[in-house]
């Protein structure tokens, strides 16, 4: 008998760039998460069309009619999630801050991806802030969601070099490519129980990479870099 897949909802507010990566990964019969619902707080979110084209059920709970009544909005969200028998949630550009009650209910079962190497640069405008700070490494983070914005226990991170001629758009594109690799892998690990929340920390049950990534590489001389290319993603991520 085939293993049961974890019924997963992807919550979006816009185009669903990471949603596309999750859809592609979930086409693999061995992928441990089933994308059972794409739910948006905006009826005009382009990601809803992407989900429909992939044959994934969609739903909308418009946030504007609820005004500041976050509890009522989240109760409506919860109703849609219950109807679809959802077991896990993946936030993918969902532009609403969720209440402590909602987050606590989904503790250890709700993931988010953030475009920085947390805890650096939580919040918005991460790429511009990274360039302004002069960091040499930037990237993305997948974490379990907790009541604090972008503060949840980290499941996985992927780093990219910040190049001398980078502007915000170039750096964002490099990070986004890594988001599309990292999020499907992290969701798979969580759905399979290989990444789980215990005592406020993430416990990983998998082989771990033991290399290092430096920028510029310490051995860089005369324009040549004898080190291998970017560090490989941990086992199962590629």
From TrEMBL:
Keyword Plastid found: no
InterPro entries in alphabetical order: Formyl_transf_N, Formyl_transf_N_sf, GART
Family: Belongs to the GART family.
PANTHER family: PHOSPHORIBOSYLGLYCINAMIDE FORMYLTRANSFERASE (PTHR43369)
Cited function: Catalyzes the transfer of a formyl group from 10-formyltetrahydrofolate to 5-phospho-ribosyl-glycinamide (GAR), producing 5-phospho-ribosyl-N-formylglycinamide (FGAR) and tetrahydrofolate.
Span of domain Formyl transferase N-terminal: 7-187
Region (Disordered): 214-238
Positions bearing the site annotation: Raises pKa of active site His: 150
Name of the gene this protein is made from: purN
NCBIfam families associated with the record: PurN
Pfam families: Formyl_trans_N
Organism this protein belongs to: Muricoccus vinaceus
Taxonomic lineage: Bacteria, Pseudomonadati, Pseudomonadota, Alphaproteobacteria, Acetobacterales
Binding site for (6R)-10-formyltetrahydrofolate: 70, 112
Name of the protein in its database record: Phosphoribosylglycinamide formyltransferase
Catalytic activity from the UniProt record: N(1)-(5-phospho-beta-D-ribosyl)glycinamide + (6R)-10-formyltetrahydrofolate = N(2)-formyl-N(1)-(5-phospho-beta-D-ribosyl)glycinamide + (6S)-5,6,7,8-tetrahydrofolate + H(+)
Metabolic or biological pathway, per its Swiss-Prot or TrEMBL entry: Purine metabolism; IMP biosynthesis via de novo pathway; N(2)-formyl-N(1)-(5-phospho-D-ribosyl)glycinamide from N(1)-(5-phospho-D-ribosyl)glycinamide (10-formyl THF route): step 1/1
Active site: 114 (proton donor)
EC numbers, comma separated: 2.1.2.2
Molecular-function annotations in GO: phosphoribosylglycinamide formyltransferase activity
Keywords, in A-Z order: Purine biosynthesis, Transferase
Entry binding sites for N(1)-(5-phospho-beta-D-ribosyl)glycinamide: 16-18
């Amino acid at each position: 008998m085939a293993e049961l897949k974890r019924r997963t909802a992807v919550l979006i507010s816009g185009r669903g760039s990471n949603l596309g990566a999750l859809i592609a990964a979930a086409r693999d019969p061995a992928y441990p998460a089933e994308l059972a619902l794409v739910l948006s707080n905006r009826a005009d979110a382009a990601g809803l069309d992407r989900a429909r084209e992939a044959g994934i059920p969609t739903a909308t709970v418009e946030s504007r009619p609820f005004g500041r009544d976050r509890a009522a909005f989240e109760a409506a969200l919860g109703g849609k999630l219950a109807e679809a028998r959802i077991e896990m949630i993946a936030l993918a550009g969902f532009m609403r801050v969720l209440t402590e009650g909602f987050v606590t209910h989904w503790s250890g079962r709700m993931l988010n991806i953030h475009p920085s190497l947390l805890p650096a640069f939580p919040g918005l405008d991460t790429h511009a802030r990274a360039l302004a700070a002069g960091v040499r490494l930037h990237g993305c983070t997948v974490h379990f969601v907790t009541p604090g914005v972008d503060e949840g226990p980290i499941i996985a991170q992927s780093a990219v070099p910040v190049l001398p001629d980078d502007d915000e758009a170039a750096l964002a594109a490099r990070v986004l490519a890594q988001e599309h690799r990292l999020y499907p892998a992290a969701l798979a690990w969580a759905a399979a129980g290989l990444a789980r929340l215990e005592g406020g920390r993430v416990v990983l049950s998998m082989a771990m990479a033991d290399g290092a990534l430096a920028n510029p590489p310490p051995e860089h001389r005369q324009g040549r870099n004898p080190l291998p290319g970017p560090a490989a993603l941990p086992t199962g991520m590629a």
